[in-house]
Amino acid sequence: MNTKLKLFIMMALQLAIWGAWAPKIFPYMTSLGFSAGQQALVGSSWGIAALVGLFFSNQFADRNFAAERFLAFNHALSGLCLLGVAWSTSFTAFFGFYLAYSLIYVPTISVSNALAFANLAEPDRDFGKVRSGGTIGWILVSWPFYFLLGAHATPDQVRWIFLVAAIASFALAAFSLTLPHTPPRKSETVDSLAWRSALKLLRQPFVAVLFAVTFIDSIIHNGYFVMADAFLTDRVGIAGNLSMIVLSLGQIAEVLAMFVLGPVVARLGWRTTLIIGVLGHAARFTVFAFAADSIPVIMAAQFFHGVCYAFYFAVVYIFFDDAFPEDLRTSAQGLVNLLVLGIGMVVASFLFPYLMTQITHTVAGPIGPETVVNYKLLFMVPSALSLLCALILAFGFHPPSRGPKHTPVTH
User: Fold this and answer.
1) Domain Major facilitator superfamily (MFS) profile, which positions (predicted)?
2) Angle 390-207-337 from CA coordinates, rounded to 5°
3) What sign has the CA pseudo-torsion 51, 52, 55, 57?
C-alpha cells in the first residue's frame, strides 16, 4: 500500500469517528433531558481539549513521540471513552466520559494533519486529495444509521452514534501502526514551546486578520452542526434515520471541492478562495431560512457545505503550512484547531442552543398552540456573520503571496 493511500485511509477513519456522533449529539442530549446550559458545557469540552492540546499534547507528539504511535495510543483510549459516553444517561457521567474523549481525540486531528504534511512530497498539491479521505469517511459512517435508527429514533437507538464511533476509533488505533514512521523532531535550536513563537506571528496583520475571521467562521461552522439535524427532522420533516444521510450530501460536495482545491487556489489566490468559502455559509443558511418547505431544495443546499469547508478551512491549513517556518507548523495547526475546534465550538455550543430557546414563535398544533423554533430568523444570524467575514477578508487580508509558493498541478 503506497503512502498516499495509507494517509487517505487514516483521514477516512479519523473523520468517521467524528462524523458518527457530530450531527446528532445535540438532539440526543435533548432527548436525555439535558438543559441548554448542560449541552453547552458538553460542547465546551472540545475547547478545553484544544487548549490543552496547544500547550501539551501537540508539543508532546511533535517533539517527543513518533506521530503514528501517538495516534495509535490515543485512538485506543478514545474508543474506550466513547463506550463510556454511549452507556451514560446522567449528565455527570456523560460529561466526564465525553470530556475525557475530547482531551484524547482532539490533539489527533492536528497530529494527523502534520503527519500527512510530513509524508507528502508536494503537500500544496496533494493534501486536498488526501484530506478528501476524511470527507469520504464522514459520508460512509452515516449509512449504518439508516438501519440502526428508526424514523423516530429513541435514545437507546441513538446511542449507537457513540458505539459506531468507538468501533472506528479502535480500527484507526490498529491502522495507525502501519502508517509511515514519522519520528519526533528534536533540536536544541528549536523552541521546545513552539506555540510561543507561533503566537508571535499574530503580530503580523495578515495572520491576525485570518485568525479573527477563522474564529468567526468556526462559530458559524460549528453552529451548523448544532442546528442542522433538529432543523431537518423538526422543521423540514425528514425521518430521523435519514437525516444523517441527507447531511452527508454536503460531504459529497466536499470531496469534489477537495479534488479541485489545488488548481482553484493557484488560479484565484488565497483571499478570493477564502471569501468564496465563507460566502458558502451565507448561501446555505439563506436557502434554509426561505425554502424549508421544499425537501428537494433543502437537500440541494447541503452541497454548499463542500464550498464552506474545502475553500475555507482546508485552505487555512494549507496556508499556514505554506507561510509558517517548518519547525512551527504543528504548533500552527494547533493554533488553528484552538479556534476551529476549541473557542469557536465553545461559543457555538453556548450561542445557538440559547438562540434556539429564545427565537421562537407559536403555531397551531394537533392539541393546541405549540412553541417552535423560528428557523427563518435564527438562520439570519450565521448568514450575517458570514457576510461580515467576507468583508473583513476583502479589505483586511493582505498575505505576502497571492497563492502557494509551489503552483499546484491538475493531475
Assistant:
1) 206-411
2) 85
3) negative
How many residues are listed for the chain in this entry? 411
Considering the entire predicted model, what is its pTM?
Answer: 0.80
CA-to-CA distance for 284 and 205, rounded, in angstroms? 30
Report how many domains make up the chain. Answer: 1
Instruction: Read off the pLDDT of residues 212-256 as tens digits, 9 standing for 90 and up.
Output: 999 999 999 999 989 999 999 989 999 888 888 998 888 888 878
Stated as kind and residue range, the H or E segment containing 327 is: none
Instruction: Quote the CA–CA distance of 409 and 411 in Å, as a whole number.
Output: 6
Residue 227 located in a structural domain: yes
**Which CATH number goes with the domain that contains 312?**
1.20.1250.20
Per-residue pLDDT, averaged over 126-137, amounts to: 83
Grid cell for residue 394:
476583502
Residue 105 inside a domain? The answer is yes
Q: Please say whether the dihedral angle defined by the alpha carbons of residues 51, 106, 322 and 272, taken in this order, is positive or negative.
A: negative
d(CA 406, CA 122): 8
Q: Is residue 342 part of a domain?
A: yes
- Quick one: cell of 341? 475546534
DSSP H helical ranges for 291-343 = 295-301, 304-308, 315-323, 329-337
Torsion sign over Cα 116, 122, 124, 126: negative
DSSP assignment of 200-213:
HGGGSHHHHHHHHH
| φ, ψ for residue 135, nearest 5 deg | -65, -45
Neighbours of 177 (CB within 10 A): 10
Domain ranges, residue 262: 3-184+192-396
